[in-house]
Write a structure and sequence with these properties.
This protein is about 70% helix and about 5% strand. The chain has a two-stranded antiparallel ribbon with strand order 1-2. The protein starts with 6 loop residues before the first helix and ends with a helix. The protein has a single domain, classed as Serine Threonine Protein Phosphatase 5, Tetratricopeptide repeat (Alpha Horseshoe), CATH 1.25.40. The chain has helices at about 5-15, 25-30, 40-55, 60-75, 80-90, 95-110, 115-130, and strands at about 20, 25. The protein is mostly helical and about 130 residues long. Strand 1 and strand 2 form a beta hairpin. It contains 7 helices and 2 strands. This is MI domain-containing protein. It comes from Polarella glacialis (Dinoflagellate). Pfam families: MA3.
């Protein structure tokens, strides 16, 4: 029940008017998912393909373009999983390749392909699944 002075109604109006947000993103980013015709495995395979090509070529600009195209066309609501795949790949690589992946993540962030919330969610997912 509400209070007689109407404070519950005012509080709910104020809280309801503000979009919910955290360091992990807003409600829209947190609710995003893969396109209906994709599985997580297919998505990860596609991301790993771009990462593997980048690690072989060392062409960061090409990798940035590939991820930008991928994000716009297919993965806009699931970019945190790009960070997860990149971080997992980095853990399996040499120091030089880890540096390349760190550089790629930095560039993806600079180009606003991966925002801070996507990166934070990627790290959080990785930590939650650590074995």
């Amino acid at each position: 029940m509400g209070s007689e002075d109407g404070t519950d109604q005012v509080t709910s109006s104020i809280l309801g008017a503000r979009p919910r947000s955290s360091s992990l993103g807003d409600e829209e980013a947190l609710g995003g998912g893969l396109p209906a015709n994709w599985t997580l495995e297919e998505f990860q395979k596609r991301v790993r393909g771009i990462l593997d090509s980048y690690l072989l070529s060392g062409e960061v600009e090409e990798a940035v373009r590939s991820f930008q195209d991928f994000a716009v066309r297919e993965a806009s609501g699931f970019l945190d999983e790009v960070a997860v795949c990149a971080l997992r790949t980095a853990l399996e690589q040499t120091d030089q390749q880890r540096s390349r992946i760190a550089e790629l993540l930095r560039r993806l962030h600079e180009e606003n392909i991966l925002d801070q919330a996507s990166l934070a969610r990627g790290f959080a997912k990785l930590v939650c699944t650590w074995e």
